[in-house]
Amino acid sequence: MAVELDELLATAIDDGMHHLVIDFSDVVHIGSDGLKVILGSLKRLQACGGRLVQAAASDDVRAVLDVAGFMALLGEFETADMAVAHLQAAGAGPAVAN
Known about the structure:
Blueprint: H1 2-14, E1 19-23, H2 32-47, E2 51-55, H3 59-67, E3 75-77, H4 80-89, E4 95-97
Parallel strand pairs: 1-2, 1-4, 2-3
């Protein structure tokens, strides 16, 4: 799954989408490969003034993100729709990565 996420995020960023939402609603586990993908994408987005936020993470996924220090870097939303609405209100047109 990390490879697919990396390809999806890289394509979105390369296509000019700089405000992205990762929807974790169907994710039950995240490992080091997934964390590396998120960190790489986060760095790329920050370099161009973009943002990466997460939505709908389970308690287990949130715990991993928190231990890795990602919760301080990512915005946290209950749903992808809430994350998109927040970014749009801030003047950003996000894409959603499932």
